[in-house]
């Protein structure tokens, strides 16, 4: 790890253990260009890669063709309106309504450690020596603007994290209409791209296609990431797979509207960019004010998609997730939602808890329906008072009784929402986001609270805190069941309405930071109608996120594969649910449901008092299996051998301990082949020279044998079967 500025070559080199990122200063004007990102370099002078002695020469040598220079120079942070006709990272409207900006080098600072980002989640380091940061200051003297580009690297992971801070040093107010977090240009080498697409109950499905000419993007204008698209992209060589080939990955640490894109231009160069979606974004920047963009994560791997994934996992586990549960095994929970929906009472919940406790389950979570007049999903959001008609004896009594069973207790909130039929809406209709005079669009018969307003956020937080202080509640599921629409805030003047989307996200972050400050040992799990808020920004506040409302084991194979492409298994909320599955109606063996859920946090979403005796009897062993393997699953390196998305028959992945002493292989046979034999699976990530044994078998194998020759995975009768193979050092 190291960051150096080479004065003679006018080059910044940002190194991790295995990668280098190089920025070059070009021309007497000090244009800042991207020269290189990839495998580690051991000499600095690669500024020639910017091609400034070719057709698009610098203005210093060819002033008459300045536009040709702008149109091909690989700008490190490209601006709008001066002749770079590709996608820009910055667009600023000045007091005269003009929007042309030119950024050039002003200065830089290199220092140990890493600063926090004001109001935003970001990566962090425990000790200064664990990270190093470059702050590169660019300026537009004519406009009175400065842009501070921040780059940080860590000693233990091959990632570069970067962001931008825009400062108004002029004497007039300006408006930001685009402020992206990161941009870099590179040659196209016949790359493919990966984006993650989906919908409710089928989030983050991998979509791999060639990079074509023009702009290809993923984006959200929903006020959250959404089920449909994701703020991640990867560029990869045509022959790259899980284990081989060059891959560039980029993710955004943000929970609101985003735009992630790649643009292939006339010169067969690719510009890749991520940040806040500029649609409906307009931020007032008064003299002396500054705007901080979210942080972007860049990862380069020459070990295929698997190498990229393991890098993201390590970065997020070690330098993003925080708090009491960061490195701890999470309790096995049972959630009453699919067991009872809104139809429950104290006695019903206690009957579930009694049986669950006897089976080895460790926490009862009470979902939607415990507050106000909440007998269905048409009313009462915002009325966060315990409904004692449902919870006879009160919340304190229920929690005490659950605790007496040796179980923890958790509770569901949807703090950002308000029902039109609620006491809160009667008192404060202006607290809901809506355009005056226009009938707002509802979703799930609810509206969204304007928590960009401090008085609104304070009111809701205090209601939540009162409930949490009233009993021994150790877990909160924070839900959000609709996107934002009809955008207007009663608290902002008309010229600042374009700030609402971002201010809303900042309000969510403030509330969750306050929650964790007041309740530091609380286990927080974020959720948004399932997986609409599974993003790196949320991981900063909650060590686990509900992956999808679809708990069907077979559907989860694709959902969890796409999620694990970026996020650690420790973050994926995964439960065993009842069958026929409530989302797709499929019936799968109870054992298979348990095996697939082991790839996440593990829990149950069913009524243990009503399931079959055969299924019920499997729960104690599933709980023991979770405790046996979770430390490995939570902390180990993830490898994928087969994808059901690609094979259409089977799925296989494994987790290997950091010291290579053990591994857990998961094999799911979704569709059995007629007249077939066992399937050969070649393992990954083991030490080739260590001797291993498959638990339950006597013979031993060299790691090289298991990786090169493989194991024979079972192929018994019937579809949707799953097996675990525990590999231990002999």
Give a description of the structure:
With 730 residues, the protein is an alpha+beta fold. Helices cover 20% and strands 30% of the residues. The protein contains 14 helices and 39 strands. Strands 6, 7, 8, 9, 11, 12, 14, 15, 19 and 20 form a ten-stranded antiparallel sheet that branches. Strands 29-28-27-26-23-22-21-31-30 form a nine-stranded parallel sheet. Helix 7 packs parallel to helix 8 (500-518) and helix 10 runs parallel beside helix 11. The chain is globular, with a radius of gyration of 27 Å. The two termini are 35 Å apart.
Main sheet: strands, sense, barrel: 10 strands, antiparallel
Amino- and carboxy-terminal Cα gap:
35 Å
Unreliable segments of 5+ consecutive residues: none
Estimate the global geometry from the Cα principal axes. Answer: globular
What fraction, in percent, of the residue positions are helical? Answer: 10-25%
CA-atom Rg in angstroms: 27 Å
- Summing up helix and strand content along with how strands pair, one would put the structural category as alpha+beta
Helical run tally: 14
Could you tell me the number of beta strands? 39
Keywords:
730 residues; alpha+beta; 10-stranded antiparallel beta sheet; 9-stranded parallel beta sheet; 39 strands; 20% helix; 30% strand; globular
Care to give the gist of this entry?
By secondary structure, this protein is of the alpha+beta class. Helix content is 20%, strand content 30%. The strands form seven sheets. Strands 6, 7, 8, 9, 11, 12, 14, 15, 19 and 20 form a ten-stranded antiparallel sheet that branches. The chain has a nine-stranded parallel sheet with strand order 29-28-27-26-23-22-21-31-30.
């Amino acid at each position: 790890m190291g960051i150096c500025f080479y004065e003679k070559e006018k080059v910044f080199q940002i190194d991790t253990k295995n990668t280098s990122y190089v920025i070059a200063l070009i021309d007497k004007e000090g244009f800042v260009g991207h020269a290189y990102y990839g495998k580690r370099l051991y000499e600095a002078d690669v500024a020639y890669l910017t091609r400034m002695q070719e057709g698009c020469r610098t203005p210093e040598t060819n002033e008459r063709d300045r536009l040709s220079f702008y149109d091909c120079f690989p700008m490190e942070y490209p601006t709008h309106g001066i002749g770079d006709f590709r996608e820009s990272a910055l667009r600023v409207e000045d007091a005269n309504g003009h929007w042309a900006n030119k950024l050039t080098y002003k200065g830089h600072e290199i220092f140990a450690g890493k600063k926090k980002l004001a109001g935003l989640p970001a990566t962090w380091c425990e000790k200064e020596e664990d990270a190093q940061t470059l702050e590169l200051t660019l300026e537009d003297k004519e406009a009175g603007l400065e842009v501070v580009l921040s780059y940080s690297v860590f000693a233990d992971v091959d990632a570069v994290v970067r962001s931008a801070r825009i400062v108004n040093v002029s004497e007039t107010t300006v408006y930001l209409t685009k402020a992206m977090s990161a941009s870099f240009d590179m040659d196209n080498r016949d790359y493919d791209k990966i984006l993650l697409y989906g919908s409710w109950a089928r989030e983050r499905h991998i979509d791999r296609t060639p990079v074509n000419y023009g702009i290809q993007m993923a984006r959200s204008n929903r006020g959250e990431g959404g089920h449909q698209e994701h703020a991640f992209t990867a560029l990869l060589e045509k022959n790259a797979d899980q284990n081989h080939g060059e891959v560039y990955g980029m993710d955004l640490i943000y929970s609101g509207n985003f735009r992630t894109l790649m643009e292939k231009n006339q010169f067969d160069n690719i510009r890749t960019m991520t940040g806040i979606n500029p649609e409906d974004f307009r931020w007032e920047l008064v003299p002396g004010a500054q705007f901080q963009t979210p942080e972007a994560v860049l990862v380069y791997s020459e070990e295929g998609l698997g190498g990229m994934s393991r890098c993201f996992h390590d970065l997020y586990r070690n330098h993003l997730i925080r708090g009491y549960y960061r490195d701890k095994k999470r309790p096995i929970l049972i959630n009453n939602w699919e067991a009872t929906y809104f139809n429950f009472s104290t006695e019903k919940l206690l009957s579930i808890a009694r049986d669950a406790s006897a089976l080895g389950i460790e926490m009862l979570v009470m979902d939607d329906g415990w507050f106000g007049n909440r007998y269905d999903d048409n009313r009462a959001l915002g009325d966060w008072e315990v409904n004692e008609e449902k919870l006879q004896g009160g919340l304190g009594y229920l929690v005490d009784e659950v605790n007496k069973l040796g179980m923890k207790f958790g509770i569901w909130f949807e703090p950002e929402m308000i029902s039109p039929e609620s006491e809160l809406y009667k008192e404060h209709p202006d607290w809901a986001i809506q355009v005056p005079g226009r009938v707002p669009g509802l979703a799930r018969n609810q509206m969204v609270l304007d928590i960009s307003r401090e008085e609104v956020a304070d009111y809701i937080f205090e209601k939540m805190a009162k409930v949490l202080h009233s009993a021994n509640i150790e877990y909160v599921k924070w839900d959000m069941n609709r996107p934002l629409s009809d955008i207007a805030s009663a608290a902002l003047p008309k010229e600042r309405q374009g700030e609402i989307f971002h201010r809303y996200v900042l309000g969510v972050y403030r509330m969750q930071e306050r929650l964790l400050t007041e309740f530091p040992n609380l286990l927080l799990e974020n959720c948004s109608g399932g997986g609409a808020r599974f993003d790196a920004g949320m991981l900063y506040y909650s060590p686990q996120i509900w992956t999808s409302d679809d708990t069907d084991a077979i559907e989860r194979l694709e959902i969890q594969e796409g999620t694990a492409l970026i996020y650690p298994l420790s973050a994926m909320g995964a439960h065993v649910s009842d069958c026929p599955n409530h989302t797709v109606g499929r019936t799968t063996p109870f054992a298979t449901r348990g095996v697939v859920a082991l790839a996440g946090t593990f829990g149950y979403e069913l009524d243990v008092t009503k399931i079959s005796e055969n299924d019920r009897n499997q729960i104690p062993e599933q709980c023991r299996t979770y405790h046996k393997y979770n430390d490995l699953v939570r902390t180990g390196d993830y490898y994928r051998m087969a994808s059901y998305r690609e094979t259409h028959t089977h799925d296989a992945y494994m987790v290997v301990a950091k010291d290579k002493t053990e591994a857990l292989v998961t094999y799911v046979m979704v569709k059995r082949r007629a007249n077939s034999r066992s399937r050969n699976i070649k393992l990954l990530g083991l030490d080739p020279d260590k001797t291993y044994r498959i638990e339950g078998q006597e013979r031993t194998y060299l790691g090289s044998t298991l990786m090169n020759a493989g194991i024979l995975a079972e192929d018994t009768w019937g579809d949707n079967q799953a097996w675990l193979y525990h590999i231990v050092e002999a």
